[in-house]
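Entry 14. Structure prediction run on the chain below.
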Amino acid sequence: MAVQAFPVHSDPTLLAEIRRYGRFDTAGCYQCGSCTLSCDLVENSVTFPRRSIRYALLGLRAPLVANLEAWVCHDCGDCSIVCPRQAEPRISMITLRRFLSAQYEWSGIGSRLLQSKAWYLGSLISVAAFTLLLIIGYHLWYVAMPVRDFATTPFGLDHMFPMMIYYTLTVILFPLALLLSRIVHIWRLTMAGSGQPRIPWSTYVVEAWVYAYESVAQPLMRKCKEHSRWLGHALLAVGTVTMLAIKVLGLRWFQTDNIYPIYNPQRWIGYLAVGCILYGIGDILLGRWRAKKEIYKDTHFNDLVFPLLILSTAITGLAAHTLRYAGFALACHYAYALHIVVATPMLVIEMSFGKWSHMVYRPLALYFLAVRERADRQVPGTEAVPNAI
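Output returned:
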């Protein structure tokens, strides 16, 4: 068998660095392999969480960063249930994904946000405060509205267009573009690093369907014993993507002072999207509040704030819509302003640096794994030495 060797350099600071992102118990782990054997997602060359933990213990930074297995994990929790040492490998995988997310992000901002509650909350509050100042400044200086009218005079939504279209496109597409720009960097770290075999581009093209399939269907999550969790995540994804598509492609049609009948697509598409979001978020928050199932134990601060932001965005948007149809124009205006203040930091911070970035990282990792497996089948007998650890 042909063997390709990575240049191995042990970094004694690696373990301490990973632990800055959350719990990562290696003291309890004695590498028995129970976690790997219990996981229904382990197959072929994918043998997490044992291999990833071993890389961290040995200080093998390059192989760990190049390893994509942490993204195969869908947080089912079976590994933590069967662990004889209560080392919580599920939580270790969550921590490792935060660490890897920081490695993918080149500015260093993501690392600070994922390590520090003060940085995370401070960034959300700062963006929200800046957004509020923009709203006030727009009305007082750009529209030249007197202060007394700003506080007492009802206005429709139309006076904000086309400025609102440009603003919405910016706060959605800029974070998304920033997130997608990291794909090349991730490819270099995981697929084109030292010791990695060169894979022809035709292989990437042939397996491109995997990215779309994993993004939409999330088939691995259906292998978890908690099948209702897949439904909640699927509905949340459908609702969120629908609302983002509406904001990017049809904001002028969706946010207007025109009153439509209930059967008009402008209304029922929005109602369906909000319903999907509320169901998915409600399922997540209820599970974390009860904390009875393994997958909801030990909730990280960021993991709680993010769904609360989505919930607040949906509720404030629904409130603005309801108040507009009820004829409360001034209250609608304030509800819409609050909606923008809540939604902007969620998009700018969470999509760029937070947990929302997993919507790109996880299917991308699964796509790259599929490319590797096809390449291995085309050139049998090739193995990188650290993968045997």
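The beta strands are 2-4, 382-384.
Filed with the rest of this week's runs.
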